[in-house]
Design brief:
Blueprint lengths: L2 H14 L3 E5 L9 E5 L2 E8 L5 H13 L7 E8 L3 H6 L1 H7 L1 E6 L3 E3 L1
Parallel strand pairs: 3-4, 4-5
Antiparallel strand pairs: 1-2, 2-3, 5-6
C-alpha cells in the first residue's frame, strides 16, 4: 500500500478515536505527515508506505519523528503498513520506551 493510500485510512481511524486532524503534509511536503489533536494534546505522526527498503524507511520515519520530540505536551506515532511488522517488532521495546504509538494500516487500521 502506498503512503498516499494510507492517509485517508489513518485520518478516519484518528477521527473515530476522537482526534481532530489539524495539519497534513503528505508526500514530500515539509513537516510531519499528520498532526492531530484530542483533549488539548497534539499527536504527531510519520507515515511510511510500502517500498523496496522497508528497514531503511522505518529508520527514516523514526528519525523524522524524533526530531519533533521537543516537549512533553505532544504524543508521537508511526503509521505503517503490515509489511513493516517484522522490523517494528525488532525495535518494539525502544518505541514503547519513547512512547511512540504504532498504527498498522491494511484493510483496517489497528494500533499495536
Amino acid at each position: 500500500m502506498k503512503e498516499e493510500e494510507m492517509f485517508q485510512k489513518i485520518m478516519a481511524f484518528l477521527k473515530s478515536r476522537g482526534y481532530k486532524v489539524i495539519e497534513t503534509h503528505p508526500g514530500r511536503q515539509r513537516g510531519p505527515d499528520i498532526v492531530a489533536q484530542k483533549s488539548g494534546r497534539r499527536l504527531v505522526i510519520e507515515a511510511k508506505g510500502d517500498t523496496a527498503a522497508l528497514d531503511v524507511d522505518l529508520g527514516t520515519a523514526i528519525w523524522q519523528l524524533m526530531r519533533h520530540m521537543t516537549d512533553s505536551s505532544t504524543d508521537f506515532g508511526l503509521a505503517l503498513t503490515e509489511s513493516y511488522l517484522r522490523y517494528v517488532r525488532a525495535v518494539e521495546y525502544p518505541l514503547k520506551r519513547l512512547g511512540v504509538q504504532v498504527l498498522i494500516a491494511s484493510d483496517e487500521v489497528r494500533q499495536l
